[in-house]
Design a protein that fits this description.
Largest sheet: 3 strands, antiparallel
Low-confidence stretches: 178-192
Order of helices and strands: EHEHHEHHEEHEEH
Distance between the termini: 60 Å
Mean pLDDT: 82
Number of strands: 7
Number of domains: 1
Strand order of the largest sheet: 4-5-7
Length: about 190
């Protein structure tokens, strides 16, 4: 059981950390459980920590392969060892694919949070809302209070436009960032 926190009492960056931690852990423990090895559980925790620390995700695609092979295919019973919620495995697969496509990069927490929320199974505990300018916010659904101990709404900083599937969040964010980086490199090259 979590201590109840109203996210509006925190600056947006702190509220995002609290929400990401609690939602990630909820989704790891949520059904359907996928049996994994202890090494797989360590990989999941490592990715969570790297995203929260704002570290460059360099080996995500290779790590995704290691996570996939850590699934204990021989059993459907998660009761005899570590497990990870299928929704978190889906989220980490999207992260791995994004890093493979766009190269090593840091992942802003609000971008990771949007993708994590988008990977929730039906009946999730939080929802994404978008206004007409494509600014996003996260709204706690009534069940978030019991499942996460969270209440309130937070705004997200980065604007990624509209999306249909989680992978488009990364495509919209990283493609826009890469385009602006290329323009900056071109401008510097032309100046010399």
């Amino acid at each position: 059981m979590h201590t109840v926190i109203d996210l509006k009492d925190f600056p947006p960056s702190e509220a995002q950390v609290i929400l990401f931690r609690r939602l990630f852990e909820h989704m790891v423990a949520d059904t359907p459980p996928v049996p994994i090895t202890a090494d797989g559980a360590n990989l999941v925790a490592g990715w969570r920590d790297e995203i929260l620390a704002g570290e460059i995700l360099e080996h995500a695609f290779g790590t995704w392969g290691q996570l996939f092979t850590s699934i204990r295919w021989e059993t459907s019973d998660a009761g005899d060892g570590p497990f990870c919620g299928a929704d978190v495995i889906q989220f980490l697969g999207h992260v791995g694919e994004a890093i493979q496509r766009f190269g090593p990069a840091t992942m802003p927490l609000d971008i990771a949070l949007m993708a994590l929320i988008a990977c929730q199974a039906e009946g999730g505990v939080v929802a994404l809302d978008c206004d007409r300018s494509t600014r996003w916010s996260v709204r706690m659904l009534p069940r978030a209070l019991g499942a996460l101990g969270l209440n309130g709404r937070i705004s997200l900083t980065n604007c990624v436009g509209l999306f249909d599937v989680p992978q488009e969040i990364f495509e919209n964010y990283y493609a826009g960032e890469l385009i602006s980086d290329r323009a900056a490199v071109r401008a510097v090259s032309q100046a010399h």
